[in-house]
Specification:
Structural class: mainly alpha
Number of strands: 0
Mean pLDDT: 93
Strand content: under 5%
Radius of gyration: 31 Å
Order of helices and strands: HH
Low-confidence stretches: none
Shape: rod-shaped
Oligomer: single chain
């Protein structure tokens, strides 16, 4: 469903700047204002998705770091065992 919005009492300087921006982008003033409004409304959704992605990245990084620490411990234990076995073989 389409609907219209009429904005009254806009500062003429603002309208002039908007018109210049629209012209620079090869758009009509209406198309520019519509795009600005759409972007403004969508931004909270984008921020929310971005926050979720950042939290997921932090969680995955923490898991990866923990996994690396555990792997380093296992490698150290295996190295010690192999040295012990090697010492036993050489004795």
């Amino acid at each position: 469903m389409r609907s219209d919005i009429y904005i009254r009492d806009i500062d003429p300087a603002i309208k002039t700047k908007l018109a210049a921006m629209a012209e620079n982008k090869g758009m009509s003033l209406n198309a520019l204002v519509k795009t600005v409004l759409e972007d403004y409304v969508i931004m909270p959704d984008i921020r929310h998705i971005n926050d979720k992605y950042e939290n997921l990245f932090k969680d995955m990084t923490a898991l990866y770091s923990h996994s690396i620490e555990k792997n380093e411990e296992v490698i150290a234990e295996n190295t010690a065992l192999l040295r012990t076995i090697l010492d036993m073989i050489q004795s």
